[in-house]
Amino acid sequence: MPDTFEIRPARESDRMPLALLFAGVAEELDWIATEPPVDVGRRAAAWTIEAIVVAVADEEIAGFLHLERSRHGYGEVALAVAPEYRGYGIGTALLEVAIDTARAEGLHKLSLSVFAHNEGAIGLYRKLGFVEEGRRVKHYRRADGGLWDSVDMGLLL
């Protein structure tokens, strides 16, 4: 349990820790579309660092939020928190920073997709004002053959 955590922009030196966190969440098989194995070297090289904010707790990256800005005036959000750091307000803090940043940059909306069974994340997004805008039925084919729904959510700013 972290006593405190810091939210800050990602740095070049965060590439590999971000990739390892991402791979760890993928290993859970429940929360993100990527499934293992994750090529962490390739993933580390692919990050758009300037689009990421991180939560640091206990001197390690506990979570991150990627905010991809569209030329159409909205931002697409992707969020991940390491399992051992869930439930401590890190996701809320990361989303609040994204909302503030998007407003300051003049974006009119934030959007995201979440698996329909991820009730914890959906509750977090709703708490911060996101609303369901649609559902993609049996949209993601999983390695085990399962077909999962995703929920599209948005927040008008």
Quickly describe the structure:
The protein is α+β, with helices and mostly antiparallel strands and 157 residues long.
What topology does this entry show?
Elements: E1 6-9, H1 15-27, H2 40-46, E2 52-57, E3 60-69, E4 74-81, H3 90-104, E5 109-115, H4 119-127, E6 131-141, E7 147-156
Parallel strand pairs: 4-5
Antiparallel strand pairs: 1-2, 2-3, 3-4, 5-7, 6-7
**Which CATH first-tier class would you pick?**
Alpha Beta
- Strand percentage lies at 35-45%
What's the total number of strands? Answer: 7
Q: Can you tell me the CATH architecture? A: 3-Layer(aba) Sandwich
Structurally, the number of domains stands at 1
Rough outline: globular
Give the uncertain stretches in residue-range form.
none
Radius of gyration: 15 Å
* Structural class by secondary-structure content: alpha+beta
Give the number of helices: 4
Mean model confidence by pLDDT: 97
| H/E element order | EHHEEEHEHEE
